[in-house]
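Reviewers of the previous submission asked for a worked example of the structure-prediction workflow described in the proposal, so we include one complete record here. The input consisted solely of the amino acid sequence. No template or homolog information was supplied to the procedure at any stage.
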Amino acid sequence: MTTFASGTDTLTRDALTVLQPGFTGTTAPDWLLRRLGEGLASVGLFGRNIASPEQLAALTAQLRAERDDVLVAIDEEGGDVTRLEVRTGSSFPGNNALGAVDDVDLTRDVAAELGRRLAACGVNLNWAPSADVNSNPSNPVIGVRSFGADTDLVARHTAAYVTGLQSAGVAACTKHFPGHGDTAVDSHQALPRIDVDTSVLQSRELAPFRAAIAAGTRAVMSAHILIPALDPDRPATLSPRALTELLRGELGYDGLIVTDGMEMQAIAGTYGIERGSVLAVAAGADAICVGGGLADDETVRRLRDALVSAVRAGELPEERLADAAERVRALARWTAAAAAADTERTPDAEVGLRAARRALRTTAAGPFTPLTEPPYVAALTPVANIAVGDETPWGVAAELFRLLPGTETGSFAGENAAGTALAAAGPRRIVAVVRDEHRHPWMASALDTLLSARPDTIVVEMGLPQAPPRGALHIATHGAARVCGRAAAEVIAGV
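From that input alone, the workflow returned the following structure tokens.
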């Protein structure tokens, strides 16, 4: 049963209700349980909180023992961005692979199975899918997290994903409104700017969000991006024009609006998290996501006090905060009803692998004979973007080792990558694994050298396949999930 600590006034409870904080550890700390008793209504989970499905289920049960209607959120996109399988790689390909297949029924099935696994662990809000149209191939943070660069394709798969995920009783949170696809800057590190006119914004960026709203998405996440044609002064997360006039008014959206992480530098480095949170709620946001980096009781206290002080100072209307808190509670009621109504669904453990296999695109320089001897896998490894993180393994080496025992591997980067890889490989056949070759000149140069010295090298591109295919065999996986690596390894080994 939900309880509130005595002496916690309505204003303070509402301020706590709109926060979605994170924490460290695989069990709930005492401070978090205490805040749930005082009015906190949501908790965000990250890879650091998850060791196994059984442990995650125990953690969510611990949270619900304190507050039975708590929203438990997670950033589980599948593909490159996984929290459920952060240490092994995902059982599901990401959006770009699903877009490459372009089968909306498959996308719906993948999202439904992902939702089933989340629900089984007690998670009821997923900060996914990404509805961004990846129109800028140099985008450093979206890339394969997008269904693609075609607006109509992104729109139909966003809708299918929302439908599938929510069929399992897990609320979808479509992101990053009004569209993060045309950026060349990562909002984790700075404030991106998109200089397009309103006609492009309407026809390209907003179309997938319209589709998600039509599909009934229960939440939408704002982006920390500046679009001068929309609001020349404030990023979307802090902009009444973006959240209240556009999303609520023009698009007719009535669900929960969640901010992207407030400790990201696009906000923390410009406005600060306290001022940013006040401005976000005033602009129309209903839930403040924080906890990817700042994950402690002091952060919760600071944001709670900032919101309460802003109301008391007349900077934030009390009714706006109350409305935001009520929208959080409304979503909690929906998740409770959806969980109660959901019938036991049959697991489909292989749907992710089937999708990954269908997403492969192969280009051969001539007849290709599958490998029968263990190769050397040279992973040309870029710095991982913050959304993906560097905890999650990627590549094809582990799967090739399973099929061809004795396979060896190494990770290489920088101007000496090719020479070092050639020396390490010796006489073995080389499988060069890359990620977004088109964005990394050193990587393209390394491939030049490898292919010049060893023309029989197999190339596996696990990012966006923008560079021309090359190698004795070129395999584009459209993502670096574990199942993408397995699908590629099967082709290489001919199984």
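The first strand starts at residue 19 and ends at 20. We consider this example representative of the routine output the project will generate in years two and three.
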